[in-house]
Amino acid sequence: MRVALPDSPSLSAARRSLRASLDARRRQVSASERAHAALLVARNVDRALHLQRHWRIAAYAALPRELDAAPLIALAASRGCRIYLPRIDRQRASRRMRFVELHGRLRRNRLGIAEPEAAASIGARWLDVVFLPLLGFDRRGLRLGAGGGFYDRAFAFRHLRQKWHTPRLIGLAYAFQEVDSITAAAHDVPLDAVVTEEGIIRCATG
Q1: 24-38, 84-98, 135-149, 164-178 — which is least confidently predicted?
Q2: Residues 6+ apart with CB under 8 A from 104
């Protein structure tokens, strides 16, 4: 059983330091390297998961330093999947993330992330597979994100399940974003797998 540690000042400081180090490494990736890695990741996802028609797939509109999910989104759409993007509640006091089907226009939110303008959203529980961005990960499935906690809150219900933890949560990353170990915090929701340009890593829950 995974034991989650409560958040503490020292844990938060350690995570900030690790985020800064990994972000600095990610900044060194050239545009051509980023594009090539994104294509390889999409191919590796296709080989490992065999995307099925009518699956409800959530992905993300990548920020400039994140691994680009666009080739994977295009592939999933060509397989007949329904594609959803996350949208952060537009009220500043809210910390909620919703998932909206990718149709029509996109607009940038207060964090600079492109989101669908459509109103209808789907509950996180009804997605089949979710592809997440990340800064770092370990082979137990612990994910280091940007620090907002939006994904952990959206999928916190997985902590209540004893067996099949749907939807499957799959990180997309460069291989260099793997670290030996990330100390678990109370809010962490583990990944089932991570896909890099080098292949797929199945984590403890996957």
Answers
A1: 84-98
A2: 116, 117, 118
The pLDDT value recorded for residue 2 is 36
Asked if residue 123 is part of any domain, the answer here is yes
Q: Which domain holds residue 37?
A: 16-202
CATH number of the domain bearing residue 59? 3.40.50.10420
Residue 178 domain-assigned (yes or no): yes
Tokens representing residue 131 in the block: 């592809």
User: What's the mean per-residue pLDDT of the chain?
Assistant: 87
Pair of tokens at residue 137? 């990960």
Average pLDDT over residues 59-73: 95
Tokens representing 108?
A: 């940038």
CA-to-CA distance for 69 and 173, rounded, in angstroms? 10
